[in-house]
Amino acid sequence: MCLKFSITRAILVLLTCVPSCANANGMDSTKVGDMKIRDVFAAMPDSVIPYLSKNNCLDMIDFAEMNMKAEVTNKFDEKCEMVSLTNKHLKIKLADDVVVEMRIRKTDQCLPDSSSYVVDVLTTYGHAPQLSMLSMYSSSWNVIKKPHLLNGYVKQLVGKNQYTTDKEWRIIEDAKNRIFVVGNLVEDENAILLQPSINGLTKEEKQMIEGKVELMKLKINL
Hints:
Layout: H1 5-16, H2 37-42, H3 54-65, E1 70-73, E2 79-85, E3 89-95, E4 98-106, E5 117-125, E6 131-138, E7 143-149, H4 154-157, E8 158-161, H5 166-176, E9 180-185, E10 191-197, H6 203-212, E11 213-215, E12 218-221
Antiparallel strand pairs: 1-2, 2-3, 3-4, 4-5, 5-6, 6-7, 8-11, 9-10, 10-12
Helix pairs in contact: 5-6
């Protein structure tokens, strides 16, 4: 199964450009009382989301806070838009098939750079198939966890088969191996909501999965 070129490009760019240390302009969260995601996003190094320039980020924040359409042209001459911005959470449509969510949360962990906040970054790619990757940073943009797929939760999201023939069993079991996991950061909780994505399956496989298998959602605390 082949992903669209644009999805592959986006994943490769993010995986190869993850910063290993804070940018000189990164924020030291220990010096801030109630940290907001807009401030951390404004100080984000370009290497975290290579699609966006520093000016792109600042413009989107300004537009969103003025209740204007927060749309800019990214480095690939594609339109991207900040579709929501709250104190703790933001969501950006980076391209037609790429959506990025960020959420800031306070942590009691002792982080290497002494930050007291964690930024969860969830990037969802594609339409068919569709998949999400989760990464975590300190509020100074040091890497805590590099981008990784969420497919380790597939078994918890896909229930038992209710097949009646060997053919149905074979179709369902094969399709299960090509189900990805899509997530959404919960805006008002330190959690992520996961669900299986069957968009990449054939019409027959979708009908079989939807009719014979229980598909579930799962909320995981971060």
